[in-house]
Amino acid sequence: MKLRAENLTRSIEGYRREVNRFLTRRVGCADTAADIFQSVAENLLRRDPDPPIKDVRAFLYRAVKNAAFNLQRSERTRAELNVLLAPIMEEWDERSPENIIESTENVQKVEQIIQSLPVLTRQIFIMYRLHGINQKDIAEQMGVSLSTVEKHVKKALSLRI
């Protein structure tokens, strides 16, 4: 097992520069590319070694491509939300102190519920609900089965978040 992890680490490091160049062209920022690669590498090293990865290079390229796509989608969603929220934020400035306190309390309740979730459930829920990543991509990124992701999403949604 330890030998397999060492070989995998060596393989990942062997492809780091090549994959980072690919990612930099894809996302337009070397720092963002390095962050994506690091995250993918960490997830890859944490995943169950069975079944073993037959082609580490192909796996890395697929995983970083998916992660870059998810990042870009998340950034688009954030930009769209900012456009949608702009009028609401203008109204926010005109709201009464009572309404502001009530809204703040509601946000705090939701944050408490999310924080009370088990770590894996919380991570999956945030990726799914807040970042808009589909369940299949979450499973791939986290190195878990699709049914595991579905179970955790269902568990979080049952709390009416």
From TrEMBL:
SUPFAM superfamilies per the UniProt record, alphabetical: Sigma2 domain of RNA polymerase sigma factors (SSF88946), Sigma3 and sigma4 domains of RNA polymerase sigma factors (SSF88659)
Secretion signal span: none
Residue intervals of the RNA polymerase sigma factor 70 region 4 type domain: 109-157
A Pfam family annotated for this UniProt entry: Sigma70_r4_2
Alphabetical UniProt keywords: Sigma factor, Transcription, Transcription regulation
Top-rank taxon: Bacteria
NCBIfam families attached to this UniProt entry: sigma70-ECF
Name of this protein: Sigma-70 family RNA polymerase sigma factor
